[in-house]
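Hi L.,

You mentioned the student needs an example of a multi-chain input paired with its predicted structure. This one should do, with 696 residues in total across all chains.
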Amino acid sequence: MKSMPKLIRRFVGILLLSFLLLLVLNFTLLIVFTLRQTPNARPWKMAEDVARALTQTEDGAYVLPDDILLELENSNAWGILIADSTMQVVWQTDNLPETVPTSYTLSAIAALTRGYIDGYPTFTGERENGLVVLGYPKDSFWKHIWPSWDYYTIANLPKTILCVLVINMTLIFLIYVIANSKLLKSVRPIVEGIRNLPTGETVHLQETGVLSEIAANINRTFDILKAQQYQLRKKETARANWIAGVSHDIRTPLSMVMGYAGQLKEDTGLPGEARQKAAVIVKQSERMKNLINDLNLASKLEYNMQPIHPARENMITIVRQVVVDFMNLDIDEKHPIIWETDEALTACPVNVDKELIKRALSNLIQNSIRHNERGYRIYVSVASESKTCKVEIYDDGIGASDEQLEKLNHAPHYMVCDENTTHQRHGLGLLIVKQIIAAHGGETAIGHSPYGGFSVTLILPTAD
Amino acid sequence: MKDAYLKEKRILLVDDEQELLNMVVSILKAEGFRNVATAKTMEEALASALAFQPELAVLDVMLPDGDGFSLMKPLKEKGEYPILFLTARGEDDDKFRGFGLGADDYVIKPFLPKELIFRILAILRRSYREENPRVKLHDSEIDFDRAEVLKGGEHIPLTAKEHDILACLYRNAGRIVTIDALCEAAWGENPFGYENSLMAHIRRIREKIEGDPSRPVSLITVKGLGYKLIAD
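Structure written out for the whole complex:
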């Protein structure tokens, strides 16, 4: 479950990033809005400006300069000046609403400073001998009627904000973790299930929770995979068994053909020609025997039904035994075998199934014998090269063309080919060699021999 | 005929196919075996084993009332003699099963007459040794029982290793025996690294058996592969 901690880390990372982004976003928005709104302090400043700019003419009347007057008009604001001595309005703008009183009491002054006159938000500006009051249109400003705060609240404001932020973040984080761990809990078996699908282990997930549909689909998938595997295996087994059965049934009748033909061949009481014919029957029945052996083994190797029992062996011992077996059979030396292994090399340890490797080597020597007339030599060498054991079997016979070699090296055999099989390709012998060597993690290379004939090189990893 | 005493041995053939029995009998007769009995079923085989007292049994793996493997056990109980399997099943498991239960060898069908004869003679030679077997070579004789060589009226003793090596060569007389097989015969399983010792022993054996050890005629070297004993 390597992916789960990764998933959790990613979740937390995303969460922290969201917090940061939210903070940045909120501050930006705050700044934008503050910039766009009418500044709080403007009407107060305006009132002070008016108070300063109002001048008294010689006849005692008050005059406001045109530019400030224009500014007031643009804001749809009205203004009055209340004299200190009389508490009467001594100056007013032309647009003063009728509902605004013209004389004031102290309490009225206090009320309008903090609040409104008849719904108009009012702002004051002090003057030497009076008070300028500006009235802005209704609903243009909201005024705080009790403009005071507990001292400590204001003093601790930064701390308070931080606290609130932290509490908020913690809460969100907790919610997030709980929600996610629930999700992860339901994801975990699904991840496990998907991981097990290719291994062939039995997968059965509980189809409950948020992700029940996915779990159900994984279960279906596993069932389908298993059914397909079973069908495929059944077919392959049937095919391999069929081949095994046929080759088994042919063995007993072929025994009699070979047995009697072998006797006739050796029967000195028979005319030479008849013995010659018997020899041909023997030779051909041996070919049939090899063919059924090869067919059976090739199909088993192809469908992985051939058990392989690897053990630590000395490759030289195995090769030597196979060569000697052939030499002991070939008494009149029709096909001399030359042992070309360096005598200083006495061991080449490999992990192999001895019987199968012997079979591969026999097939190669058999091939050289079959494809060449008597008198040609077969060479066998074993060499140890950088963690590999190299076995070469080559002859000075007719060999093969480059084109044929290319085909032998790369074209699939008809037995393992799912395309057309109208062209009969090379025999099973080489296919088996390739299969056996591949099953041992080795390589097979077919080429020209230094003596002009055919050459096969087997490269197997050495046992350490 | 050096194997004449082996041809006197009683051989029991068990196979469900009459034709195959006929053929094997004819092969054995042609080779000079005179005491051959046949059986087609397990039941017949057991009856015959009591009456005939075989000295070698050749069994088919597939029988109508059972298989050769299960026949082997009761046969072995009635007498200690070697068993050779004839099988149409070349598969690994059968082979191992047979050996595990005490089979001495197996021959996979189809087979050539000389292959079967060679295997039968090899088993018999292993199981029944000739009374005082003296092996005649070109320039000497080997007496395996006394572990000595007789050359020109002289008795030359053989060491244990020399005896083992010669015995292995003699069992396969006329055939090449690999260096590895000889090392195994002398030093047992996993005989790695004994090649040089083997060469030294061969040299000493030649001094004992050959007329001219530098030009051997009885113990032939097959370069890089092994040795061959030529017996008369």
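You could point out the following to them. Chain A has four domains: 3-38+151-188, 42-135, 212-299, 312-461. Residues 212-299 of chain A form a domain with the Helix Hairpins fold (CATH 1.10.287).

Best wishes,
N.
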